[in-house]
Structure prediction request, 484 residues.
Amino acid sequence: MLKSSMALGYIILVCLFNGSLAQLNQRLFPDDFMFGAATAAYQVEGGWDEDGKGVSIWDDFFHSQGANETGDVACDSYHKWREDVENAKNLGLQFYRLSIAWTRILPDGTLGNINQKGIDYYLNVLKALKENNIEPVVTIYHWDAPLHISKLGGFLSSAIVDYFGDYARLLFQTFGEYVKYWITVNEPTIVCELGYGMDVFPPALALIGDGIYQCGYNLLKAHAHAYHIYEDEFKATQKGKITIVTECAWYEPNDPTSTQDLETRERAIQFRLGWFANAVYLGNWPQVMIDRIGNRSQAEGLSKSRLPQFTQEEIDYINGTHDYFALNTYGTVNVTYTPEAPPGEASYWTDLEVTNSDTYDDPQGIRKLLNWINNRYNPGEIIISENGKVNDGGLDDDDRIEYISGYLSSILDAIYEDNLNVIGYGVWSIMDNFEWGSYDKRFGLIEVDFDSPNKTRTWKKSAYWYQDVINRRCLATTCQENIL
Ligand SMILES: *[C@@H]1O[C@H](CO)[C@@H](O)[C@H](O)[C@H]1NC(C)=O
Ligand SMILES: *[C@@H]1O[C@H](CO)[C@@H](O)[C@H](O)[C@H]1NC(C)=O
Ligand SMILES: *[C@@H]1O[C@H](CO)[C@@H](O)[C@H](O)[C@H]1NC(C)=O
Ligand SMILES: *[C@@H]1O[C@H](CO)[C@@H](O)[C@H](O)[C@H]1NC(C)=O
Ligand SMILES: *[C@@H]1O[C@H](CO)[C@@H](O)[C@H](O)[C@H]1NC(C)=O
Prediction:
């Protein structure tokens, strides 16, 4: 009954959708390929001060500005989690990515006060997902540090390594029975660039020449600490996997025949993806970062590089702290060679020295990026932990269907033609949510009416489309096992 009505829905969709379905990959997704969707605590939960939750840097950031739009209520998933799990189940999701709000479990970030009501909330969600055969993918840190930990220096201080380790151990002890895929930190580039290098995100320190790199240094040590705690104390019994999520666009040389633009492209990827992935997968910062930041620091008269140097002990501790590769990627950027600026005000941007175009959609980009990663890092299993399309809203989201189908089609090419071990794909996001300052940027498969007290959820066209793709494991009208 359900199946036939879904098939009918699909025929209607195909007729309505005038995109490029005809060119889509006609291969079936591998049997063990996992379709999923992603969220993050601050963007969906709300309940910002309920049941003993402490204040995070995001709560403080918007409240201290008197901002009209905050994550205080967001999608109200703190109360509506049953409906969210129901939607995930009805979509047919095989995994659901969520993050834990550090302050819901540890209100001031330390083990001094453990909030049982916060623990109960996540236990309920995780159990409900497992009961519906949906694998939870759990992010330990998705940007919402406890304000108290931030006051202690946040990622500028090595004190965060032990605080983060204590928090992560508590999560493994408490939730590990239900979690097979852990993520330590989501998108460290964004944490360090927008929060420590600029004033766009909290803690808004605007330390673009040095704080940004101190952040990266302590963040990697915190990640590695959590990895080793899991490895040493939990992995044998809980049998899960843990890694870090890195984000990167694909970069194209503005002039594909220019060796300078090609070198610039490589440098852009190294400063973005390599900044964290190189350390985790190969043991150190990319050589181009060490050289350029070292040289510029010297020219600025500093006695040592603004990019902290790892000790051999730190290298050994960070090198190899991954059980799978998790990648967030959204678009492609053209880059142009730019002559090196004379020494002056220290900045990540002059350390990098690239001229960027705007980001644009190009499904080929994800395949090229996956190959770049595979060639450098020998990453093993790869999960696309986020990919998705923003628009201004509305239920008729053909643009989102076209985007996701194009990227998934390119992923099938990466799997079958390039032999890459891509094991899953997570749409950002299952539903519209609070895009770090705005409710107008809509990423959801499911619409959320933020004006309704009920935060009413309504399936968009893309939700029905994704449900059908998951059900048939195929993007085109018909698919075959493998086409050579
Ligand atoms: C909040 O909204 C009011 C009314 O639209 C506006 O006057 C005010 O500037 C806004 N405040 C902020 C911080 O955006
Ligand atoms: C990116 O570069 C390609 C050629 O490599 C060009 O066709 C395209 O218009 C460029 N896009 C942008 C946004 O600059
Ligand atoms: C990281 O570990 C790999 C594998 O053990 C090793 O080959 C490599 O030299 C290490 N990297 C560094 C910088 O020590
Ligand atoms: C760093 O400086 C040295 C000595 O001036 C120079 O040979 C080298 O090319 C520079 N490296 C980079 C990446 O700028
Ligand atoms: C609230 O949402 C639920 C589920 O979307 C719906 O069943 C219910 O009727 C809504 N209540 C109101 C008052 O809109």
